[in-house]
Write a structure and sequence with these properties.
By secondary structure, this protein is mainly beta. Helix content is 0%, strand content 50%. The protein has a single domain (3-23, 30-157), classed as Aligned Prism (Vitelline Membrane Outer Layer Protein I, subunit A), CATH 2.100.10. It has strands spanning 3-9, 15-19, 34-39, 43-49, 58-61, 67-72, 79-86, 90-97, 101-102, 111-112, 117-122, 135-144, 148-157. The protein is globular, with a radius of gyration of 15 Å.
């Protein structure tokens, strides 16, 4: 199993989910992972679909949120960092990969609101992105209710490094 780090956020949420590929294998590659985020001033939901042969979407959070964003990682792209803001809930979230940043590749911006304290799970120094880590964020874990209360990450050694 991959290593767990976190979570950040509040202690609420009556449900829990591990967001990992259904057919998780330590040395398998999971390209073309799709991530959807619904939000307003808080993160209402995060849905991750792995290209693992099953394509079973994993969802943390509820059905609210007026803004939906979606991005799909390229086959050679992997997550190297997650930043956000949190208090009792996850207020905002952003993703960094070996190739880009989401929502804005040119500057650090967040999906969601402006409340809470900053948190980060980072595997690389964004000052020198050429020095790629030999690890990747392969999945997440979360407590949630109608919104995402907390989020943590699963990290593993990248295959073929």
């Amino acid at each position: 199993m991959p290593a767990r780090y976190g979570p950040s956020g509040g202690g609420g949420g009556d449900r829990y989910i591990d967001i990992l590929p259904d057919l998780y294998r330590e040395n398998a590659q999971y390209g073309n992972t799709n991530i959807k985020i619904k939000y307003e001033d808080k993160i209402d939901s995060i849905v991750v679909t792995y290209e693992d042969g099953i394509r079973n979407p994993k969802k943390a959070g509820g059905d609210g949120g007026n803004t939906l964003v979606e991005f799909t990682l390229a086959s050679n792209e992997f997550i190297t960092g997650i930043r956000g803001r949190s208090g009792d809930l996850i207020d905002a979230i952003a993703f960094e990969t070996n190739l880009s940043r989401y929502p804005d590749p040119n500057q650090m911006q967040y999906y969601g609101g402006h409340g809470g304290r900053e948190f980060a799970f980072l595997l690389t120094n964004s000052v020198n992105p050429a020095s790629l880590p030999d690890e990747e964020i392969i999945g997440f874990f979360s407590h949630y209710g109608n919104k995402v209360d907390s989020i943590g990450v699963y990290v593993r050694k990248r295959p073929n490094t």
